[in-house]
Specification:
Blueprint lengths: L3 H25 L7 H10 L8 H5 L9 E6 L5 H11 L3 E6 L6 H11 L3 H7 E4 L4 H6 L15 E7 L16 H22 L2 E6 L1 E3 L13 E3 L2 H5 L4 E7 L4 E9 L5 E8 L2 E3 L5 H25 L1
Parallel strand pairs: 1-5, 1-8, 2-3, 2-4, 4-5
Antiparallel strand pairs: 6-7, 8-9, 9-10, 10-11
Helix pairs in contact: 5-6
GO biological process, one term: DNA repair
Organism: candidate division Kazan bacterium
Protein name: RecA family profile 1 domain-containing protein
Length: 307
């Protein structure tokens, strides 16, 4: 039976082989300057994947091809329900890697039925993988379908729910294991980004939370909740969104970081349709006013720092 060191050595040899291939390919092809004007036109014309909720507003109108979204929050905060909804609404094929064991075909059907979508067509477009360990999670990246394997050749979205679940076992306990765990997490992210770039599709990662020991005791509990994976994870995505519970089935999505969007909050709720906007009620109006208040406070703080 191989030891953990031997498994990592195998993964390292595989990575070395990829690096050699990258080097050989880079040497053969002409590396051309990228036209910013052309890139701008591509970004404007790209088809975005939408949830149909205020979450789209958080990230500039929806997920673009090759964009990366990180969702983190406590259990029941809406990470998986958001993934389900986006998977159903994505017009193209979806690769769904479920490490949590939380994927429910019955829930996908319920969302489809509530939205008047043919669930059988959605079942066919979702390519589900359920690795049972971090080793399977790493090795499965070599076995994902490519556009050539898809009938219409278009994969629009890759979802990994969640990235960190299998990296929390006894073999990764204690700070002494960080030098093993963090490179594996970074490698998993890097491989998925590479695949998403090659397929010209969006990537969604989810992760759990941990309670920060430096949290301020005078602030709400959720202010001390941080994404499991740390800086290795948070610096990678284009959008980092923190989800938290509010009242009843209401959830709050806070944009924590983005390359070109301001920090802000938007409420949504979990229903039979997956996730959707709050109805126009006094209760909803109160929650929305709270999120708008946060946005104003953020801008005021930002102005003070600039002055």
């Amino acid at each position: 039976m191989p030891t953990i060191d031997e498994i990592i050595e195998y993964l390292t040899r595989r990575k070395e082989k990829i690096l050699v291939e990258d080097f050989e390919n880079a040497e053969k092809k002409e590396l051309l300057e990228i036209s910013v004007e052309e890139k701008y036109k591509q970004e404007l014309s790209s088809k975005k994947i939408k949830t149909g909720t205020l979450l789209d507003d958080l990230i500039g109108g929806g997920l673009e091809p090759k964009s990366r979204l990180l969702l983190y929050g406590e259990y029941g905060s809406g990470k998986t329900q958001t993934c389900f909804t986006i998977a159903v609404l994505c017009p193209d094929h979806v690769i769904y890697i479920d490490t949590e064991g939380s994927f429910k075909a019955t829930r996908i059907k319920q969302i489809c039925d509530a939205r008047g979508i043919d669930y059988k067509a959605v079942f066919k477009k979702i390519h589900l993988f359920q690795p049972k360990s971090w080793i399977e999670q790493m090795l499965i990246l070599d076995k994902l379908p490519s556009p050539a394997d898809i009938e219409d050749g278009k994969i629009g979205l890759i979802i990994l729910d969640s990235l960190s679940k299998h990296f929390r076992g006894i073999e990764f306990a204690g700070r002494q294991s960080l030098s093993i765990k963090q490179p594996l997490i970074r490698e998993c992210i890097g491989r998925l980004e590479r695949i998403a770039d090659a397929y010209n599709c969006a990537l969604i990662l989810t992760t759990q939370i941990y309670e920060s020991p430096t949290a301020n005791p005078f602030l709400p509990d959720w202010t001390g909740q941080k994404a499991v994976g740390g800086a290795s994870l948070e610096h990678q995505p284009d959008y980092v969104v923190f989800l938290r519970k509010a009242q009843g089935n209401v959830r709050i999505a806070r944009l924590m970081d983005a390359s070109w969007q301001p920090q802000r909050e938007r409420p949504f709720m979990i229903t039979e349709k997956g996730i959707e906007d709050l109805p126009e009620t006094k209760k909803a109006e109160k929650i929305i006013k709270k999120t708008e208040k946060f946005e104003r406070q953020f801008y005021e703080m930002k102005k003070e720092k600039e002055n």
